[in-house]
Design a protein that fits this description.
The structure holds two protein chains of two kinds. Chain A is an all-alpha fold. Chain A is 77% helix and 3% strand. The longest helix of chain A has 32 residues, at 15-46. Chain B has helices at 5-23, 28-50, 59-75, 80-86, 96-125, 130-149, 169-194, 198-208, 210-215, 220-246, 251-255, 261-272, 278-297, 302-316, 320-328, 344-354; strands at 160-161, 248-249. The chains are: A mainly alpha, B mainly alpha. At the A-B interface, helix 4, helix 5, helix 10 and helix 12 of A face helix 6, helix 9, helix 12 and helix 14 of B.
Chain lengths: 303, 360
């Protein structure tokens, strides 16, 4: 309790620290927003709640880390992880996810949970349980007399995440495939009647999501660090973001992603890093409870 | 009780449960675990199978019971904070009387404490439907593990060494086997009765259509909460017994193991058949045997195997063993329909059936 009050008073006494935390939060939140966008896409289009989302991110992270270890610059990890995870997504879709789309929601949740366990343990067997990070060696700048540090990797992550999100949003708006995806999300049956190959749409959506996660993971490996079992924390974060924003509302998902990053920076500073995971999970419970209270006032009639 | 296949199966299970540790004394720990698994599957099925609320966090009550009993057992005779901080430097012993009185009170407190917490949890979580409920319960279990892991008073992440059983290891094994067997069998009998009452029907009504059940005048919230409290009571006791059985408790892997026991519950029920009384028992037995057999051969790869097993069961074999038998041989279970004489349609149908072959 003592150190929590102490930390809050530090923030109060030195307002410039708030700016620093805010900047850090926004830069990290950009990566969350990117991956949450993918989750919302799969959720909205296929009605599959992908609990392996965080583990896709970790896979992307290990791609960047592996490139770093073998002498390539980890920034190459972003496009390479994008392509590799596209392939992983394709295999998983064809082997497993395709069979659970039409089933009830719990089936997809459990099946993706199984995928998550396999990925976690696979990464653990392949790379060991240690925490790793990829060194991008970009310059960093000190502002406000050294109280705020803007590292090049974080800034780069922000820029890349924004560019990638913009590309995905434009793709969804302007291409035939993007239109087909949106049509399938609205009504898969009507889309089929109108000649859209929904099977192809589903495949594409799941692969795109995995690829986005891969790119986000490569950024995570440079900005932060990666570990085989960290994926679950990311999955929970993304669920908090998407649940809070509502999966149909993509701008809100991106805003909530930034919000999550900022919240986590301040929470970590005030409560201490060891409570980080507990804070995220409690936030999930809080968001779910608020959602529930909202729904109580909107009781729907018998169908 | 009437003599029907069901009673015979119950009696057979009782005999097998008593005879098994005497015939196979080397495996009494595995057998005790098997009864724990059966209890897990049965409690999960109350909510997940009969009521249609798929929870991914039932392990929460298991861990809560484990910690409540540990605190009671130690707190009755020593200061808990001292005990957990000094457990590795000083050797604290419990007399036989202290051990058994503490264990008895601990089990009781674990059951009641978990049930009480379930009332609060049910109030907070039962407005959630479908996948939100599953994710919310999973979050609850993970949050509990993380909070306990940073709570110094109960030993934080390094856990608590439980009081040592006063007696020979063989006696200890048999004692905990008997406890787990008694609780699981009592649960099975209790559920046999429960599913035959109006309450059991109300659970199924909620599963089939919650809005309609509510419109028919069922107090769905109260029924859901009662079901959760029942599951939590038995899970709490099971947690307390298991904590004492293995002698050391710790938050992430033993009390709130979200990726092992927690997910086994769901798998065993799915494997055996959701929403049936015997499905969870059969599923738990088959799953435990498969698991123990493969674990020995896939050491290091066991969790990969587990994940693949989840995917295979969920994707390809969801109706479960009992569901599959029901589908394949419906005549084994369905009562033969007896036509009603007063019903004109049934009468016509009977006359039609009674006509000799070949007549117009």
């Amino acid at each position: 309790m003592q150190h929590i009050i102490g930390n809050i008073s530090i923030l109060w006494a030195a307002p410039i620290l708030n700016v620093g935390l805010l900047l850090d939060g926004l830069m990290i939140g950009a990566i969350f927003a990117l991956a949450a966008y993918g989750l919302a896409l799969v959720w909205g289009v296929m009605n599959v709640k992908n609990l392996a989302q965080g583990d896709f991110i970790m896979m992307g992270g290990y791609v960047a880390w592996y490139l770093d270890q073998s002498g390539l610059h980890p920034l190459w990890g972003v496009p390479i992880a994008f392509l590799l995870l596209w392939g992983v997504g394709w295999v998983l879709y064809k082997a497993i996810v395709r069979k659970v789309i039409t089933r009830d929601l719990f089936t997809s949740l459990l099946a993706t949970f199984g995928i998550a366990i396999v990925i976690q343990q696979g990464l653990n067997l392949a790379f060991g349980p240690n925490t790793q990070s990829a060194q991008a060696n970009l310059p960093s700048w000190s502002l406000a007399g050294g109280l705020i540090t803007v590292t090049g990797t974080r800034l780069f992550g922000l820029v890349l995440a924004v560019l990638l999100s913009a590309a995905v949003v434009l793709f969804m708006k302007n291409t035939r495939m993007g239109q087909a995806i949106r049509a399938t999300a609205q009504d898969p049956r009507a889309a089929r009647v109108l000649g859209i190959n929904t099977e192809r749409v589903y495949t594409f959506t799941f692969c795109l999501n995995a690829a986005i996660c891969g790119a986000a993971g490569a950024l995570v490996a440079m900005v932060w660090n990666i570990q085989p079992f960290m994926g679950t924390t990311y999955s929970i974060r993304l669920f908090v973001i998407v649940t809070a924003a509502g999966f149909g509302n993509l701008p809100a998902v991106i805003a909530a992603g930034f919000g999550m990053g900022v919240f986590e920076q301040f929470g970590g500073f005030v409560f201490g890093a060891e409570f980080q995971q507990a804070i995220i999970v409690l936030l999930l419970l809080a968001v779910l409870t608020v959602r529930q209270i909202q729904q109580l006032s909107l009781r729907q009639a018998l169908q | 009780m009437k003599r029907n296949p069901h009673s015979i199966a119950l009696a057979g299970l009782l005999v097998a449960g008593i005879a098994a540790p005497l015939l196979l004394p080397d495996y009494s720990n595995e057998l005790a675990l098997l009864w724990l698994m059966i209890l897990f599957a049965l409690t999960w099925d109350i909510l997940g199978g009969q009521m249609g609320y798929n929870s991914l966090g039932n392990i929460f009550f298991f861990g809560v019971g484990m910690y409540i009993s540990a605190i009671v057992q130690i707190g009755l005779f020593y200061d808990v904070g001292m005990y957990t901080s000094g457990a590795r430097t000083t050797h604290i012993t419990f007399t036989t009387f202290q051990y058994f009185s503490g264990l008895g009170l601990g089990l009781l407190a674990a059951g009641l404490g978990s049930a009480l917490i379930a009332v609060a949890v049910g109030w907070a979580l039962f407005g959630l439907r479908g996948p939100y409920f599953a994710i919310g319960t999973l979050g609850l279990a993970i949050a509990a593990a993380e909070l306990v892991a940073s709570w110094e008073w109960v030993g934080a992440a390094s856990g608590i060494s439980m009081p040592v059983f006063p007696g020979y290891p063989e006696a200890q094994k048999l004692f905990f086997y008997a406890l787990l067997f008694a609780v699981s069998f009592a649960l099975l009998l209790f559920l046999t009765w429960l599913y035959s009452t109006r309450f059991g029907l109300a659970l199924n009504a909620i599963r089939d259509d919650e809005e309609k059940a509510e419109a028919m005048g069922l107090h769905t919230r109260r029924i859901k909460r009662t079901a959760l409290v029942l599951a939590a009571f038995f899970l709490g006791i099971a947690g307390a017994i298991f904590g004492n059985m293995i002698g050391f408790i710790e938050p992430r892997d033993i009390a709130f193991p979200t990726t092992t026991f927690n997910i086994y519950m769901v798998l065993m029920v799915l494997l055996g058949g959701k929403g049936t009384l015997w499905g969870p028992v059969i599923g738990a037995t088959v799953f435990h045997i498969i698991k123990e057999a493969t674990w020995t051969y896939f050491l290091g790869w066991q969790y990969v195997t587990l994940g693949l097993l989840i995917v295979i069961i969920v994707v390809y074999f969801q109706q479960g063993i009992v569901g599959w038998i029901l589908e394949k041989y419906p005549n084994w279970f369905a009562a033969k329909p007896v036509p009603d004489e007063r019903d004109p349609y049934a009468k016509a149908a009977m006359q039609l059936a009674a006509r000799p072959e070949g007549s117009p």
